């Protein structure tokens, strides 16, 4: 009973952490919170709030904090440390995905069988997960899925299942595209931008980013960060790349409710502007 009550309260109070501006303090709080959530999960393993919080928290730790450490190691030229943190990120996304799958199993049966092909999965999602309330967990599970692929890109089995994570995010958007300020569209924009510029799917990347900007008015700075790093980098548009990253840095506090996400975006944007190796990956130097 205590665990269930704690999970309920924690899910309602996460907005407080999202309004923080201090990156280091938020990092410490995230790991401390994860320890508490993991302990409570042992006492109440079938609590849906708890599973959602663990899914979201491990996603956030992997994307915001562990990948930050991996990139900082690259900037220092410490390849061994970068590889270590990438393994940490892989483990975080694996754990997030596992909790997300546990949550999905509590809500509906048949997901593993539905993943045999895209048509069966879409049908299952429409039949079993058609309520708008499922949009957040499907989004975060999809993020974990794609995050794991990014951190474990050398594993062909992991990469082969990429389409499942994409389908989860696409369905989340169909249910409610405004979740997390249009983050689903941002993730899909980055996904489609991985294609060759001449590929038929590549223009879809810009459409997804544009829709996210329409939803959040450019105030959710993760959108502009990903637009620069995934789309303008891929198109070798140096002027737009630099302009967009500088817009991230120059906007003081556009969305207090998402201050932490914006703080993280600013941190990454500053690194991409300061270190030539990230610009070199885009095909342009200083």
Note the run of SSEs as H and E: HHHHHHHHHHHHHHH
Distance between the termini: 58 Å
The count of strands amounts to: 0
Structural class: mainly alpha
Arithmetic mean of pLDDT: 94
Tell me the fraction of residues in β-strands, as a range.
Answer: under 5%
What's the total helix number? 15
Helix content: over 70%
Q: Can you put this structure into words, describing what you see?
A:
- By secondary structure, the protein is mainly alpha-helical.
- It has helices spanning 2-18, 23-43, 48-76, 79-107, 111-114, 118-128, 135-151, 156-160, 162-175, 183-192, 202-216, 222-232, 238-250, 259-274, 276-280.
- The protein is globular and about 55 Å long.
Task: Throw out a few tags for this protein.
single chain; 286 residues; mainly alpha; 15 helices
Topology at a glance:
Elements lengths: L1 H17 L4 H21 L4 H29 L2 H29 L3 H4 L3 H11 L6 H17 L4 H5 L1 H14 L7 H10 L9 H15 L5 H11 L5 H13 L8 H16 L1 H5 L6
Concise overview:
This protein has 286 residues and is mainly α. The chain contains 15 helices and no strands. The mean pLDDT is 94.
């Amino acid at each position: 009973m205590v665990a269930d009550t704690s999970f309920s309260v924690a899910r309602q109070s996460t907005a407080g952490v999202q309004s923080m501006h201090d990156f280091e303090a938020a990092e410490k709080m995230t790991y401390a919170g994860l320890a508490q959530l993991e302990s409570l999960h042992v006492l109440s393993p079938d609590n849906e709030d708890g599973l959602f919080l663990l899914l979201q928290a491990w996603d956030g730790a992997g994307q915001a904090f562990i990948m930050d450490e991996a990139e900082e190691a690259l900037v220092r030229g410490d390849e061994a440390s970068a590889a270590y943190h990438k393994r940490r990120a892989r483990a975080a996304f694996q754990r997030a995905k596992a909790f997300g799958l546990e949550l999905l199993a509590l809500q509906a049966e048949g997901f593993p069988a539905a993943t045999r092909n895209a048509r069966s999965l879409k049908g299952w999602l429409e039949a079993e997960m058609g309520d708008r309330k499922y949009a957040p967990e499907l989004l975060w599970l999809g993020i974990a899925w794609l995050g794991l692929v990014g951190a474990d890109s050398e594993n062909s089995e992991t990469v082969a299942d990429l389409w499942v994570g994409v389908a989860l995010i696409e369905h989340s958007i169909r249910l409610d595209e405004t979740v997390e300020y249009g983050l689903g569209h941002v993730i899909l924009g980055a996904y489609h931008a991985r294609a060759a510029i001449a590929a038929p799917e590549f223009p879809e990347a810009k459409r997804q980013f544009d829709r996210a900007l329409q939803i959040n008015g450019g105030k959710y700075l993760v959108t502009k960060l990903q637009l620069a790093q995934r789309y303008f980098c891929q198109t070798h548009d140096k002027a737009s790349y630099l302009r967009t990253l500088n817009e991230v840095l120059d906007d003081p506090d556009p969305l207090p409710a998402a201050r932490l996400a914006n703080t993280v975006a600013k941190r990454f944007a500053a690194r991409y502007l300061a270190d030539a190796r990230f610009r070199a990956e885009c095909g342009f130097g200083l």
